Amino acid sequence: MTALPKDPVILLSVVNTELRDRFPTLERFAAAHMTEEQEIRNRLEQIGYQYDPEKNQFV
């Protein structure tokens, strides 16, 4: 498992960068990092970000 950052702001940066550069969907990102998509969503919702599938980014 690839360790994702615990800090939600750093996590946001990592996720959005990888979604932009490497992964076409959040589902594929989560699978590559062996984590649940909902866990990522929950952690980033705590700081006010929602996943936008059309943009493939948390906004």
Report what the structure shows.
The chain is mainly alpha-helical. It contains 3 helices and 2 strands; from the N terminus they run αααββ. The protein has helices at residues 8-21, 26-32, 37-45, and strands at 51-52, 57-58. A two-stranded antiparallel ribbon has the order 1-2.
Q: What's the gist of this structure?
A:
It contains 3 helices and 2 strands; from the N terminus they run H-H-H-E-E.
List keywords for this structure.
59 residues; 51% helix; mainly alpha; 2 strands
Query: What structural class should be given to the helix and strand makeup?
Result: mainly alpha
What's the shape?
globular
Mean of pLDDT: 96
Count of helices?
3
User: Strands of the largest sheet, in order across it?
Assistant: 1-2
List the helices and strands and how they pair.
Layout (H helix, E strand, L loop, with lengths): L7 H14 L4 H7 L4 H9 L5 E2 L4 E2 L1
Antiparallel strand pairs: 1-2
